[in-house]
Amino acid sequence: MRLLIGQTGAPTSVVNASLRGFLDAAAEHDVLALRGGPDGLVEGRFTPVTAADVPVAATRQGGSWLGAGRRAVTEADLDVALDVLAANGIDGVALIGGNGTMALLHALAGRAAARGHELTVVGIPKTVDNDLVGIDHSPGYGSAARYLTTIVPDLARDHAAMAGVEPVRIVETLGRSVGWLALAATWHRDDPAHAPHLVLIPELRFDRPAFLASVQAALHTHGRAFVVVSEGAVPELTDEPFEAVNHSRIILGGVSRALASLVRTELAVAARGEVLGMAQRSAGALASDVDRTEATEAGRHAAKLLADRATGLMVGLHRRPGGTGYDPVPLAEVAGRTRPVPPRWRTTQPADLGDFHDWLSPLLGKN
């Protein structure tokens, strides 16, 4: 078979491990690398690739060896892409990505079927947001969570030292429409004295009076208030395009600074808004070994599915007593859908998240 492997959307610190896993398992096939995400798919930016071409060091670094990107793909784009795939003799396509990528694959498969074009498609999950439907967790999330569980407690300790001049600090994580990363940033098992006092996630409607009251209560009890917020938790305070198709406009964050301004105005105390930004998804030095292993296995399983001509599927990750299982999930169930934080973990109080921390702990790894 002639296979194509690509990535769309943003990188993670373990996405190159998925690529290596795929190439290792597809060694008996002719494989082309898709360069530059969905633009490369439409423009036919394909180059031959083997596992030997991807440095082992790249699997321990951030970024994407394949290149990445976003595009609002039209039906005309799908037709052009199918023509390009046919011209290059491609039998199967694997794309690494999130729910937008799975929607692209599902649409590509549907368009191919309508045209009578035989094409096998398989998705390899990848997102730090952890919002893919049908799986327990996504490759990329464990490493981003590990970064946060390492960095945010240090920020809290720093804040404790500086509380006399900076009583309120608000730390902003990624998470346009879901709060999985913000919840990870509440980790405080290694240092309960420096736990965040409040967490805001998109799944809970922002309550301005309650927020200000909680900050004031933390100031009264602890002499400082340390808050974690998802970038999309309070969309009314920013003009960021959280609902944009394929998120092709850059989201710069800033809700933490808007909240800090609100605190300064309403409570008359000094407050800082801290935006953690892209380090969450790119810090290869703090990647989880568990996450890297699972990302590699997800790539391997995708290559095997293509070789078996199984199509319309995404590799799934499911926890089992003996370890992670990789049962596939139909793309139709995943495409364009978002998995929010479940109701049992929707809270503004980090002290109530012990069960979530139990769930998160195995993903953080040991390295």
From TrEMBL:
BP term (GO), one: fructose 6-phosphate metabolic process
Keywords linked to the UniProt accession: Kinase, Magnesium, Metal-binding, Transferase
Keyword Transferase attached: yes
SUPFAM superfamilies: Phosphofructokinase
InterPro entries xref list: ATP_PFK, PFKA, Phosphofructokinase_dom, PKF_sf
A GO molecular-function annotation: 6-phosphofructokinase activity
Cofactor (UniProt): Mg(2+)
Start and end residues of each Phosphofructokinase domain: 3-306
Family according to the record: Belongs to the phosphofructokinase type A (PFKA) family.
PANTHER family to which the protein is assigned, alphabetical: ATP-DEPENDENT 6-PHOSPHOFRUCTOKINASE 1
Protein name: 6-phosphofructokinase 1
Source organism of this protein record: Micromonospora matsumotoense
UniProt lineage: Bacteria, Bacillati, Actinomycetota, Actinomycetes, Micromonosporales
